[in-house]
Specification:
membrane, three-stranded antiparallel sheet, 380 residues, alpha+beta, MscS_beta-dom_sf, LSM_dom_sf, transmembrane, MscS_channel_2nd
């Protein structure tokens, strides 16, 4: 009877204590969350209950499995103890990572709700994300090392490993030079405020938004939903455009190639009307001026403003589309034209020499034009 009751007491007692402690912890966290609405910390800590229960149950079993007094347990005492120790180390690392992530997320959430500057919010988000990744990497490395040290064979080679650590460090440093460079570049980006999550950047001629930053690579999502993944060291060694630095407000230009007879004053009035009806225009500034000319056309530039990169694109497209439609409907003569009339030929003997009329020759176009007639012009 003792061989039956003892395992039930050990296993069942460990399970009951684990469930009871988990329920009490969850109850306390729910009450704390209901009292403190200003912070999501207590609500997020409830996500730590599963690893806490695993740690508690494994620790109780590790401390009491010798009391089972079962032949199978006696014969495999060392193996069972080793497995429980490995599980306990892994569960503890899981709990530490979950608690650290909870604290980081709650801190960021409180900062985001109390700060109105989106640039600062993105900077803190980038920093806490990288800090969370560093903590995860460190805890995972320590946990794996602790697991390996539980094996007697690993303990026996510890001295030789320490003796060769210097040589291995040099070899690893040379072999992982690029990886270490990206690692330090990731810290530089996170705490140097060079680029942040959500920033609008132009890299290699591609416009996009920073979607993910890790310790080794950075992902940029372009406007057409493509993803560019590149090492973070690229952003510390190459120039790139960051449209979100120093504020997200932007100015944009729209160019028109028009005939010299285009009504510039009327175009200014029309631009003002277009911007007044465009919800994406922020109302800060606008202008329209002739910026260049050529023998056949002139260049008209419209300058508009918006609160961010997405809205400036919308405003530019709206101005371009509506202005061209207005010119086509009300001032078609202002659109670029191609002159198709023949050139005016010089009169007199020089004209006859060029056309071959005095030698009975036929010009290349098959007829001899009359010099005293004005040339006909057409517009296409």
């Amino acid at each position: 009877m003792e061989n039956v009751l003892r395992p039930l007491l050990v296993l069942g007692g460990s399970l009951v204590i684990t469930l009871l402690v988990g329920w009490l912890v969850d109850l306390l966290l729910r009450r704390a969350d209901s009292r403190h609405h200003e912070t999501p910390l207590w609500g997020l800590l409830r996500l730590c209950r599963p690893p806490l229960q695993v740690v508690l149950c494994t620790a109780l079993l590790r401390a009491s499995f010798d009391q089972l007094r079962i032949d199978v347990v006696r014969d495999n005492r060392d193996a069972i103890g080793q497995v429980l120790t490995l599980v306990l180390i892994g569960a503890t690392a899981w709990l530490v990572i979950r608690v650290a992530a909870t604290i980081v997320q709650s801190s960021y959430a409180r900062y985001a709700t109390s700060t109105r500057d989106p640039a600062r919010v993105r900077r803190v988000r980038t920093q806490v994300t990288l800090i969370q990744r560093v903590v995860t990497a460190v805890v995972a490395t320590v946990a794996v090392a602790a697991m390996l040290l539980t094996f007697p064979a690993m303990q026996s080679v510890g001295t030789s490993m320490l003796a060769s650590a210097g040589v291995l460090g040099i070899v690893a440093g040379v072999a992982a030079q690029s990886t270490l460079g990206n690692l330090f570049a990731g810290f530089q980006i996170a705490f140097g405020d060079m680029v942040r999550l959500g920033d609008t950047v132009v890299v290699d001629g591609e416009w996009g938004t920073v979607e993910e930053i890790t310790l080794t690579f950075l992902t940029v999502r372009t406007w057409d939903e493509r993803r560019f993944t590149m090492p973070v060291s690229y952003f510390t060694s190459n120039p790139f455009e960051n449209w979100s630095r120093g504020g997200v407000q932007m100015s944009g230009t729209v160019f028109f190639q028009l005939d010299h007879s285009a009504p510039v004053s009327a175009m200014r009035d029309k631009l003002r009307d277009i911007l007044g009806e465009c919800a994406a225009w922020d109302g800060r500034d606008w202008s329209l001026a002739v910026t260049d000319t050529s023998p056949t056309t002139m260049e008209v530039r419209a300058v508009v403003t918006a609160k961010d990169a997405d809205d400036i694109w919308t405003v530019r497209c709206a101005v371009r589309e509506q202005m061209i439609g207005w010119l086509r409907d009300h001032h078609p003569y202002a659109l670029p034209r191609v002159v198709t009339s023949p050139a005016v030929l010089p009169p007199g003997d020089h004209w006859r020499e060029l056309t071959g009329a005095d030698h009975g020759r036929t010009p290349p176009n098959g007829h001899v034009p009359t010099p005293d007639k004005a040339p006909r012009t057409g517009r296409g």
